[in-house]
Fold this protein.
Amino acid sequence: MKDKVTIHSLKRFKQIGQKICMVTAYDATFAHILDQSGADVLLVGDSLGMVIQGHDSTLPVTMDQMVYHSAAVTRGAKRAHVVGDMPFLSYQVSAHEAVRNAGRLVTEGGVGSVKLEGGAEFADTVRAIVRASIPVMGHLGLTPQSVHKMGGYVVQGRDEEQARKILDDALALEAAGAYALVLEGVPLELARTITQSLSIPTIGIGAGRYCDGQVLVCYDLLGMNPDFKPKFVKRYANLHGSITEATGAFFTEVRQGAFPDEDHSFKATKSIRLVAPAAVGTGLLPEGEVAAPAEGEEKVGPVYGIPV
Ligand code: KIV
């Protein structure tokens, strides 16, 4: 596709000062919608462990699950660059395993790049994956896979020592060949310094406005969970409310017998000859006979949802 976003487009966006818009996606239908609404990057985040699977951390997410969701998202995305998250323990054990797992996200999941959490200690791993021609996005600051080490989901880099370490990590990842960096849960002043120090783009989440782009979990920005409202999330919709209202209306109509009405029901055509099930086994048709679509019969189309 001519205007497909690539890692090179993202670098150019930084050079010309065009903000990068990234959002998470976990399935083909959402990917299709978000792609059409203008996302530059779709991140198949391991946040799916929380928002899709209902865990209280991203740690239980497996490689197989990331491959499965990545494949669904890449089927739905046409223009956006798709990034697949490397889940916990898929890259920490050895660079060898990291390359193999990153490769699975590309070959089986169809993603254009992978993301992993961590700084200078993973520079060699990043180098190995990049050497295999798989672009890598880094992720620094509040790194959810290190929740136990951090002692919770707490803002990182508030003091000078921590801030210095994050800046050094950012420089190490850039030198190792990362093409972009997610900065999560860090003060906006630190994010600004990092953004100005790197030639690769930074994409912030809870990192203030100076980053080269922004990312949010799509379920958060769409307001799917009224009980989750951290400071860095802005809700652009109330889908929890809309979904509750729509499904509630459906349930009411079903209970009242108002749905399905004539408009949402199929009619028999002359090609169907009804016989009492008792007369011929349990089927509607005489044995061996198949109902042919009648001339001009309405087509059902795809049975479920939108074709992507
Ligand atoms: O897993 C994820 O969704 C992420 C983003 C929040 C950056 O890593």
The CA atoms of residues 106 and 229 lie 33 Å apart.
